[in-house]
Design goal:
Strand order of the largest sheet: 3-2-1-4-5-8-6-7
Oligomer: single chain
CATH architecture: 3-Layer(aba) Sandwich
Distance between the termini: 28 Å
Largest sheet: 8 strands, mixed
Radius of gyration: 17 Å
CATH superfamily: Vaccinia Virus protein VP39
Strand content: 15-25%
Number of domains: 1
C-alpha cells in the first residue's frame, strides 16, 4: 500500500515552540543569539552558491536583482532581510503567526518590502529562483513531503539551498547537551532523533526530482567560531537543482 501523503508539512507543536520566541528573535543576545552567529556563515555560502549557479559577478550590487526568493520557515526574517538587501524579490513563509508579525514589523522598521505569509509551503503556488530553508526540515511533520513541497516551488534553472544539523554524537553534545543545557539555545528546541544525516536527506532530494550540488559543513572552533568547513559532523548546508 502506498504511503499516504500528509495533509500538512507543519508540526503544530514545533510551530508553537518557535512562535513563543518571536518577540526575542531580533535580539542578538537573546534566545536566538546562536542564529545571529550562524546567519553570516549561511549567507556566505548562499552568496557564493548564487554567484556560481547564475554566473553572477561577486562585485555586482545588488547581485540578486530580478531574482525571486522564498525562505521557508523564515522565523522573524533573519535571512529574508539580507536576501532583500541583495536585491531579491523575497517571500518569507512561516507556520507561526507570531513570527510573521515580528518579521513584518522589523521589515517595516528597516524600510524593506518583503512578502511575509503565515502558511504551509505545501499550500503555496508560484515558482522561485531561490528556494531556501535553513534549519527547518528537522522540525517538520514529514521530511519527504516537505522536500517535495520545496521542489515544487523551484523555478526552471532555480537553486535550492537547505541546511540542517547532522545526527551525530558531535551534534548531540554541541547542540543539546551543551547549547540547550547551558541556555544558549532554548531548551526543547531540538529533538536529536529528528536530525537527518546527509545519507538520509540526499535520497529525499533526489526522489523530489533534484540533484545535490555543493555540500559544506558548518563547524565550530574556539579560534574561528562558526565557519564553513569540510567537516559535516555538526551541521551542513547544500545546494540542489533540477535533475
Amino acid at each position: 500500500m502506498a504511503k499516504a501523503i500528509p495533509a500538512t508539512t507543519i508540526n503544530p507543536a514545533e510551530a508553537a515552540h518557535f512562535g513563543k520566541l518571536a518577540a526575542d528573535w531580533w535580539d542578538p543576545k537573546g534566545s536566538s543569539a546562536m542564529l545571529h552567529r550562524l546567519n553570516p556563515v549561511r549567507l556566505r555560502f548562499i552568496r557564493a552558491a548564487c554567484d556560481a549557479h547564475w554566473g553572477l559577478n561577486p562585485r555586482d550590487v545588488p547581485p540578486l536583482a530580478a531574482k525571486s526568493a522564498i525562505d521557508v520557515g523564515c522565523g522573524a526574517g533573519l535571512l529574508c532581510e539580507p536576501l532583500a538587501r541583495l536585491g531579491a524579490d523575497v517571500v518569507g513563509v512561516d507556520a507561526a503567526p507570531e513570527n510573521i508579525a515580528a518579521a513584518r514589523q522589523h521589515a517595516h522598521g528597516s524600510g524593506l518590502k518583503i512578502d511575509y505569509r503565515c502558511a504551509d509551503i505545501a499550500d503555496l503556488d508560484g515558482a522561485f529562483d531561490l528556494v531556501a530553508s535553513m534549519e527547518v526540515i528537522e522540525h517538520v511533520a514529514d521530511p519527504a513531503h516537505f522536500v517535495q513541497a520545496l521542489a515544487a516551488r523551484l523555478a526552471p534553472n532555480g537553486l535550492m539551498i537547505l541546511s540542517t544539523p547532522n545526527r551525530t554524537s558531535a551534534s548531540r553534545l554541541a547542540m543539546i547537551t551543551l547549547a540547550e543545557g547551558l541556555g544558549m539555545i532554548p531548551k526543547g528546541t531540538h529533538d536529536w532523533d529528528k536530525f537527518l544525516t546527509p545519507e538520509e536527506l540526499i535520497p529525499l532530494i533526489e526522489a523530489a526530482g533534484l540533484k545535490v550540488g555543493q555540500i559544506s559543513g558548518i563547524a565550530f572552533s574556539p579560534t574561528k567560531g562558526l565557519h564553513l568547513s569540510d567537516d559535516l559532523a555538526l551541521n551542513y548546508i547544500l545546494t540542489a537543482t533540477r535533475a
